[in-house]
Amino acid sequence: MAHESDALEHERASWKPSPGLAVAVADPVRNPELPPHRERMTDKDPAAMKRAVRTVYTLFYLSIAGSIWAIAAYMLFPIESGEILAIRDNNLFIGLGIALALLAIGIGAIHWSKAVMTDKEHAEPRHATRGRDSTREAAVEAFAAANEESGFGRRTVIRNSLIGALVASVAPAVVLFRGLAPFNTPEDPIAGDPVALLEETMWEPGMRLAHDPTGKPIRAADVTLGSAVHVIPEALAELSHEEGYLDQKAKAIVLLMRLLPEQLIEPDDRKDWSYDGIVAYSKVCTHVGCPVALYEQQTHHLLCPCHQSQFDVTDQAKVIFGPAARPLPQLPIMVDDEGYLVARSDFTEPVGPSFWERH
């Protein structure tokens, strides 16, 4: 092995390239520089430039029309009736208007940049920048050059139509907020008062608790320990969609759970609100109204899946985590002569989110 190693070392030291063998030398990469500038049709033909400008501001005006149509569709296809066809038409035509408004702005901006703005390439040397007056002056010059190249300040029709399209595109979103605060009417004097609307639900003394959505009444003996049952008023199943089924259900939905009676922490004025460890709480989260439907049997916590608010079922559904500001309203319950669970009364406070002013 030693003789072989010595031979290899001697061979390497004595090797020299033959006279006819070319040896590659690493040269630095040459700067390929910018390719030759290719003029566009709009650069060569003034008529083509005028057509491109007209196309751009026409698209921006089309965007304005789409925004106006979205606002008009909100008024022409109201959803207050609650009918499925009305809701479908409202969503369809408002969506088409907003889509047209945003799409036309996007296409117009792209066509403007490709056909109208200056597209000549230039190299900008890099150097150390400092916060000096000369640096600020250079920044101002850069903005002025960008304005000149884009034609934003010079092409007033494009500029004004773009500004109008951007302003109009926000208008449908502003108008849609109208649906969050209905106005009072002579036929419905509390339509604009969310507290009054949520103070009363379908629950009334003696109304049976029923399974959601079948409407089958619930016997206390059938509620097992650790279970969570989705509940609606028995009378709700008899309502049709035209009679306000969804509106009433949104306020009256309840989650029913059974614990060991000794696990409940109940003040004296609420000891008769439960029955043999069975408690009922509103399913509407007091944060923004999402359905609280996740029940942890081991911890006895209710979880809202939207923003992770947690409520302690053993202690009057008090908030123990998350953004909810108050406990879930409790529905007082008892058992009738046939063993069915019934409501003692309606909720004693408004259900739902707590960001409204409450009496």
Rg value:
36 Å
Largest sheet: 4 strands, antiparallel
CATH H level of the largest domain: which superfamily?
A: Rieske [2Fe-2S] iron-sulphur domain
The secondary-structure element order is HHHHHHHEEHEEEEEEEE
Helical residue percent band: 25-40%
Q: What is the count of helical runs? A: 8
| Gross morphology | elongated
CATH-derived topology of the largest domain:
Rieske Iron-sulfur Protein
Structural class: alpha+beta
| Low-pLDDT residue spans | none
Polypeptide structure, described:
It is found in: Cell membrane. The chain has 359 residues and is of the alpha+beta class. The protein has helices at 2-14, 41-44, 46-76, 84-116, 133-150, 156-176, 194-199, 245-252; strands at residues 209-211, 228-233, 254-258, 278-282, 294-296, 301-303, 310-312, 318-321, 333-335, 341-343. Strand 7 and strand 8 (318-321) form a beta hairpin. The radius of gyration is 36 Å and the shape is elongated. The chain starts with a helix and ends in a 16-residue tail after the last strand.
